[in-house]
Amino acid sequence: MSRMQRKILPGRSYHITHRCYNREFRFQRAIERNNYRMRLFEMSRKYNIKVLDYMITSNHVHLLLWADIASEISEAMRFLQGTTAQDFNRRKKRTGAYWSGRYNTTLIQDGNHLSRCLFYIGLNMVRAKAVEHPSEWQWCGFNEFMGQRKRYRIIDIDFLLNRLRHSPDIVRFREWYTRTIDDKINREEVKHESIWSEAMAVGSQNWLQEITAALPIKERTIEPVQTIYNADRDYSLMSVEELELSYSLKGTKKEQAYLTRS
Q: Which of 151, 196, 233, 239 is 20 to 30 Å from 3 by CA-CA measure?
């Protein structure tokens, strides 16, 4: 039976997560994380997508991508998954599965919803207690945000600022990002929140209604997100008056297949 075609809407940001097979620590060694990062760099040059953030852990990855043409996401991920698995199997002289099934895809609305996802990704290894601060983990977007990674830069920071609905002021962005990261660590606001990878989409209520209208979804379950990122402190680059409560779009497994299957 042929696989269902991946139904990803164009001109959107996507939070993608993918685990190694059987939750094994395939990225435990630095050489494997470095290889994946280089393949991610190649992907960003080979396909018409924008990388907004990334996090490479010991057994799974987070990617925050933007694409204008939906098919580019599937093609880019096929390249990234395939080359990473081939590299690993060749070095280990092995065969067999490298990834655990399909990757998860969650649509993320621009603006403060995107900024909340950005912090969730950035704090992943702090949450895992592997480091005390994202600056201590080389294989994530933090050093690129701070301008410390000069060669093989992956993230399109100017485009990210645009998606955050912020003027291209990199100095202000860096101050805001580090201040918020530090604040969240000090307040111990680093807990796992499944909606960022398990929901079909996260954004405002009106935006999610537009998304559901474009998808063949029978029942539209839109719920407010009870997240630490909805606190009264300003975690966005917008004014407090512009902040919106985040909502999540849920669906059945069959409905989710329109976003998470190919």
A: 196
Cβ partners under 8 Å of residue 99, min gap 6: 18, 19, 20, 21, 81, 85
| Distance set, CA 189 to CA 122, 196, 224, 231, 238 (Å) | 12, 15, 19, 10, 21
Is residue 206 one of the residues assigned to a domain? yes
The CATH number linked to 212 is: 3.30.70.1290
Tens digits of residue pLDDT in 120-152: 999 999 999 999 999 999 999 999 999 987 788
Domain presence at residue 38: yes
Question: Domain for residue 1, yes or no?
Answer: no
Domain count, the chain: 1
Query: What one-letter code names the amino acid at 173?
Result: F
* Beta-carbon contacts of residue 179 (< 8 Å; ≥ 6 apart): none
| Cα 72 off chain centre by | 16
Reported as a single tens digit per residue, the pLDDT across 79-127 is 999 899 888 878 877 777 777 778 888 999 998 899 999 999 999 999 9
> How many of the other CB atoms lie within 10 Å of CB of 113?
26
Full residue range of the structural domain in which residue 94 is found: 12-260
Please report whether residue 117 resides in a domain: yes
Q: Is the dihedral of CA 198, 204, 205, 208 positive or negative?
A: negative
Element (H, E) at 89: helix 70-92
Neighbours of 28 (CB within 10 A): 13
Backbone dihedral angles phi then psi of residue 161, each to the nearest 5 degrees: -60, -40
The amino acid present at 30, given as its one-letter code, is A
